[in-house]
Structures are given as structure tokens and as C-alpha cells.
Amino acid sequence: MAKRPSGAGEGPEENGQQAKRLKGTAGEGDAEGQNKRTPKRKIVLLMAYSGKGYHGMQRNLGSSQFKTIEDDLVSALVRSGCIPENHGEDMKKMSFQRCARTDKGVSAAGQIVSLKVRLIDDILEKINNHLPSHIRILGLKRVTGGFNSKNKCDARTYAYMLPTFAFAHKDHDVQEEAHRLSRETLEKVNSLLARYKGTHNFHNFTSQKGPKDPSARRYIMEMYCGEPFVREGIEFAVIKVKGQSFMMHQIRKMIGLVIAIVKGYAPESIIERSWGEEKVDVPKAPGLGLVLERVHFEKYNRRFGNDGLHEPLEWKEEEEKIAVFKEQYIYPTIINTEREEKSMMSWLNTLSIHDFNSSTAEMEANNKNSKNSDVEGSDGCNDDSD
Predict the structure, then answer these.
(1) Residue 307 known to be catalytic
(2) Tally of CB atoms within 10 A around 369
(3) What is the pLDDT of residue 22?
(4) Contact 254, 196 (CB under 8 A)
(5) DSSP helix/strand/coil, 238
């Protein structure tokens, strides 16, 4: 059938109306109408972000003075047309759930959030266009309708980047940025970190749990310190820990206690003693340097990853983008903040005031007041960094 000439049989008024219609088709109004007709689907987003300047991951509606990562994310989802505006005000409407509720200042290279969105064209590009450069959506996958990123996560891996002078012995090592980690000391650090593997009572590694609270028992799959490397004249190393879940401050206290032992402030036997019912003074390392490295969905992947409808929640294709993001935004922030604020050096100077040999009345009172308290973070979502 012959195509009708574009101007045939059209008067000026009809031409004008068509122009308006064409303008609407190209404009946001029509896109919004198209979005409303697009069905919502349950997905997961792979996120990376530098947490400096944010009061954690989780959104606090009604508390605008404390900006969070989710504030920026929800704004980008609304502005890109992925979700209606009212879903941003009530996140339950989009079944939103973050896998880990990282706390103030903590960064992430592999955070996962699950939610229902309209699968618009070029969705990742459009969301990222409305995000600051230090927050990126690196991947997207469809998941089952009932998927919940927090409940389906069966392990989390955190990294903790620290200057190696943290391991300098208090009596006979250089305590400054010129310090370099010896092979012998690195082996000792790894020997101590390996003791955490397995299931132990970590009630001394959080302020939330009493010694008889069964939820204080946590399973650590692996924990080790990698080879040191030099950045801007300071030698750093990265400790990695994988566990089913973590309590608030648990990772920072696990690392803090190992530092106290290696520096010569505490005996090695304190690790095993800390798992008993006695209250032990466990120092909490600074929050700077803590990064949510990745989250694991091994059971979900076995059940649904190869069912022909869903992909396994693995991100091999995104690994290069994750590595680039860490080099551009996460590591420089940690290094520059350490140089400017010297948070590790300042904290190391407080180790001498800790009592590693006996309990204090104040600690016991603290435990009594807090043993019945709990927050969402007890499942590893508000773990280690205020």
C-alpha cells in the first residue's frame, strides 16, 4: 500500500496538532505514559559507592540532614522513570531491600539491592546519569518474584584496608609511615586472623549481645591479610573476611584485637578468652578502610541460577568495572583521608589505655544495658562502621 504523503489532506490546524503529538512522543510526558504501561519486574542491582560524606546506606525518611546512599539512589530511580515518585516515598511499594546496611562512611564494591522496577530501555545508563560519579550501578539481573536480597544472602565478604604501621610493634618498630611490614609479621597476622575461622561466641565483639545470647554465635569462613603495597609513600595491606553474617562493629573489633596483639599490648590467649562468658575489653579499629567487597547467594544460585529463566547472581563480567571503581573512588578516598585525618595513628595511641587483662565495672554495666537491644544490623546489615 502506498504511503500517504506527509502533508496530504492536512490543514494548518491539523499540522499543528500533529506537531504537538510528535513533540509529545519525543518528550518526557509521553515517555512517562509509556513507563506507566511498562510492567514492573523484580530485579537486583549491583552497586558500588564511596561512603565518605554519607550516613550509611539505609534511607532515613524524615531525617534530611543525614544524607544516605539510598537517598541518591531513590532519586535517580524516580528521575530515570524506573519507579513512580510515590514508590520513592514508600519503599515497600517497590519491595526494596538492601543486602547489607553499611554504616556511616563505609564504602561498597559489591552491594546488592533487590526491588521492582519498570524495565525501561537503557536502564543502567539512565539511572547512572542521575547519580553522582562516586555511586555507580554496575550490573542488573532478573530474579524470582519473591527474592529478598537480605534474606537470600548466605555470606558476605568485607575488606579492610589499613596502613601497615598498624602492625608495628610498640617497643621496637618504627611507628610512622616509613614502616614496612616484614614477612615474619605478616605470617603472625595471618596466623592470628585464622583463629577466627569457624563458629564462635562473638558477644565481646559488639555492644548488642550478652554472653548467653545464641545469636552472638557467628560462623567465619575465612579471614586473611594480603600482600602489602605502597600508595603515596604509605604501605597498606587489605584484610578480607567472609562470614555468614556480622554484628555491629564485629569486624572492626576482630581486627582491633589482632592489632593489639601484634603491637604487643595484649597476649595471644585473649582471642580464645574473648569467646568465653567473661567480658573482655576488645578495641574497635577505625571505620575508615572498611569496604563491603561482595555478597554471596550460593543456595539461590544452586536452585534458580540454571533453571532456564534466571541467571546465577555472579558478576564475573562486571569484575573489571568493580576493580576500576575501587581504584578511582574507594582506595583514593581511604588513602587521602588517612593522610589528612590520621585516623589509624590516632586510634593506635589509645591502645595503651585498654585493659586487656580484666573486666571493668563500666564494661559490665554497658553489657547489662545493651544485652537486650538489637537492630537490623545483627544480621550483618549494619555491621561495622559508625
Answers:
(1) no
(2) 10
(3) 37
(4) yes
(5) strand
User: What's the DSSP call for residue 102?
Assistant: -
Count how many residues are written for the chain. 386
- CA 281 from centroid of its chain's CA atoms: 27
DSSP conformational letter for 2: P
- Of 71, 72, 103, 384, which one is the catalytic site residue? 103
DSSP SS3 for 295:
strand
| CA pair distance 59, 303, nearest whole angstrom | 31
| Residue 360 pLDDT level (bands cut at 50, 70, 90) | very low
| Contact indicator for 325, 109 with CB cutoff of 8 Å | yes
> Dihedrals φ, ψ of 308, to 5°?
90, -10
- Cα four-point dihedral sign 330, 334, 335, 339: positive
pLDDT band at 39 (very low <50, low <70, confident <90, very high): confident
The Cα diameter of the chain in Å comes to: 96
Q: Identify the sign of the CA torsion 186, 192, 197, 202.
A: negative
Q: Which residues contact 12 (CB under 8 A, 6 or more apart)?
A: none
Residues sharing a CB contact under 8 Å with residue 324, sequence separation 6 or more, in sequence order = none
- How many other C-beta atoms lie within 10 A of the C-beta of residue 29? 11
